[in-house]
Amino acid sequence: MNTDAVLRCTEVSKRYGRTQALDAVSLSVAPGEMVALLGPNGAGKTTLFQLLTGLYVADSGAVEVLGADMRREPVRALAQLGVVFQQPALDLNLSVRASLRFHADLHGLPSSVSRPRIDELLQRFGLAEVAGKPARELSGGNRRKVELVRALLHAPRLLLMDEATVGLDPASRAQLLEEVLQARSERGLGVLWATHLVDEAEKAQRVVVLHKGKVLWDGTAQALCADRGAASLQGAFLKLTGGQKNATTA
Ligand SMILES: Nc1ncnc2c1ncn2[C@@H]1O[C@H](COP(=O)(O)OP(=O)(O)OP(=O)(O)O)[C@@H](O)[C@H]1O
């Protein structure tokens, strides 16, 4: 495994009663790398994200963010990661700028740092014109972009995207993915992008296929296609997971 990893999971397991949600999952993300975590419904993606963000503790195994162990040094680990959750979590009554300022304050950023950073990020993501509007007046795509800006405010080294395009139309999905890919290369961010949509996974440098709590593949999409003798990632994924059809193209 890469020793410079921004994220390293080692043999992580989690059980809910009789359900083994994660079974000895190991994966890593390098700086500047986007890794797609591809799995059908129930594969364990959300459970893994709950462990990566310190919401739950693994039964066994370790999660490290830039070498900081999530169990022993959660504050140091969490300081290095930004996250966009599957469920939208914006205060719809606050203006975009007020929402971002509030989160900058939560991160303890002095306003001399946060104000120019918010301006720069709003400009960078094409949100400057809506900065004064309450979030409820924004499109779904722009709301998600505000959540992306919020996740990047404290300049994290690792970005976690948990099925963040759910509910967006195809154009907004593609745009959000492009924005994240660009932020990755501009900022050297490591990105873990969880999805059940194969077309989103095709853009990643590496694909980790999770199925029934186990990692079935960790490598490039091309290598997966070659390994399975499939013409497309969709075909390779279906062969790998035994034809389960709820990982889709859109
Ligand atoms: N709180 C819980 N209590 C009991 N079982 C759970 C709980 N959360 C998840 N599970 C089970 O653990 C397994 C993994 O679920 P998880 O939500 O992590 O998968 P997922 O890949 O995120 O699925 P989806 O794409 O549908 O969000 C599933 O069998 C699910 O039913």
Automatic annotation (TrEMBL):
Membrane in keyword set: yes
InterPro entries membership: AAA+_ATPase, ABC_transporter-like_ATP-bd, ABC_transporter-like_CS, ABC_transporter_ATP-binding, ABC_transprt_ATP-bd_su_PQQ, P-loop_NTPase
An example molecular function term from Gene Ontology annotations: ATP binding
Domain ABC transporter residue range list: 7-237
Short name of one Pfam family: ABC_tran
Keywords from the named record: ATP-binding, Cell membrane, Membrane, Nodulation, Nucleotide-binding, Transport
Source species, domain of life: Bacteria
NCBIfam families cross-referenced by the UniProt entry: PQQ_ABC_ATP (TIGR03864)
Family: Belongs to the ABC transporter superfamily.
Protein's name in the database: ATP-binding cassette domain-containing protein
Lineage of the species this protein comes from: Bacteria, Pseudomonadati, Pseudomonadota, Betaproteobacteria, Burkholderiales
